[in-house]
Design a protein that fits this description.
The protein is α/β, with parallel strands linked by helices and about 425 residues long. It has three domains: about 15-25 and about 280-425, Rossmann fold (3-Layer(aba) Sandwich), CATH 3.40.50.1980; about 30-150, Rossmann fold (3-Layer(aba) Sandwich); about 175-280, Rossmann fold (3-Layer(aba) Sandwich). It is built from 17 helices and 14 strands. It has helices spanning about 35-40, 50-60, 80, 85-100, 115-120, 125-135, 155-165, 185-195, 230-235, 250-265, 270-290, 310-320, 335-340, 355-365, 375-380, 390-395, 405-425; strands spanning about 15-20, 45-50, 70-75, 105-110, 140-145, 175-180, 200-205, 220-225, 240, 300, 320-330, 350-355, 370, 385-390. The strands form three sheets. Strands 1-12-11-10-13-14 form a six-stranded parallel sheet, with helices on both faces. The protein has a four-stranded parallel sheet with strand order 3-2-4-5, sandwiched between helices. It is globular.
Amino acid sequence: MNDLSPPTGGGCRNTPILKERGQREVFCGLTGIIWLHRKMQDAFFLVVGSRTCAHLLQSAAGVMIFAEPRFGTAILEETDLAGMVDAHAELDREVARLLERRPDIRQLFLVGSCPSEVIKLDLATAAERLTKVYAPNVRVLNFSGSGIETTFTQGEDACLASMVPVLPESNERQLLVAGALPDVVEDQMMGLFEQLGIGPVKLLPARNIDNNTTVGPNTVYALTQPFLGDTAAALDRRGARQIAAPFPFGEEGTTAWLAAIAEEFGVDRDLFDQVTAAPRARARKAIAQAAENLNGKSVFFMPDSQLEVPLARFLTRECDMTAVEVGSPYIHDTIHGPDLELIPAGPTISEGQDVDKQLDRVRNARPDLTVCGLGLANPLEAEGLSTKWAIELVFTPVHFYEQAGDLAGLFSRPLRRKSKLSLEAAE
């Protein structure tokens, strides 16, 4: 296994965190529906919002007009917003029409938005009422995807946290893996667990409601995404226990994540090495090839996706980059601590955002690469700084061994592009 001791000089787990509470640049939490509706094949996400919400989802997801996606918008009209009609009655009619047209729906999520939260529409009560009407054929839940107080990955966190209280109780000794993964990546993960003899393994979210994901006092859980703070808290309340580990990004992170689970389930060290040797070698080779342009370069993470801490660990430990600042919307020691411990000492660790102050720090540092949101990338590019869109790191398969080279490639591509443009300009 890799040496996972803190780097010389200590890691960043005990580094004082710069906490900023100013103006933020965030993307709407409704965005999480775009990957969740593909993952949960019997679910439907009904956004209770405005036409702007509908346009956002249609454009972000690239859904063609004749497609039948597993999400939609119950439009709040001016009469709804002005309190001139009973919004709950309107919502009930929309749900009835939807379920009559789509009998394949087994899970219906009522998703709050900025407009529904502004008028204080009680979707929790609506979900309880509709569950009584449509149970047991349809389970109705609710969560907020509003961008007023959330980052865009918190949509998934809110969704999964809403599912935890209704999961069936189980006293079985089991592993629950929380966090939506692309099906091909999930299959790779399950294949590794099978070879290691780890099981039973339950998934949250599962591909359909019949997978019978359960939870109880003998459940241990591992997170695949570092933005699942509310989900982790909900699982803790159900009696489950978290397996703390670095996140499975890159060869080192994946090995550490699997090793923590293997130790929990008493897997023999020789078996672990035997199962992971080949994929670890492939990952190291792929990272080395993709990271040639990253070695010795500096990186600045602005807070956006909440993936920043484990990605900073990946880039500094496996791609030989230097982190100038690692900013994240939220930092929880129980979740991010194992990765922070492995980041070489030196960078500023910041939580939250005051965007003007942070932009000043970017301009002063002039990093080789800045990881940021869409709204900040173009202005920084215009100033001659190379950027990577944070949202691309969420939409692209980047977990576990087989995707490690692709992950490094996402960061090296902007630097290769800049180098190529500079050569062409010189000619």
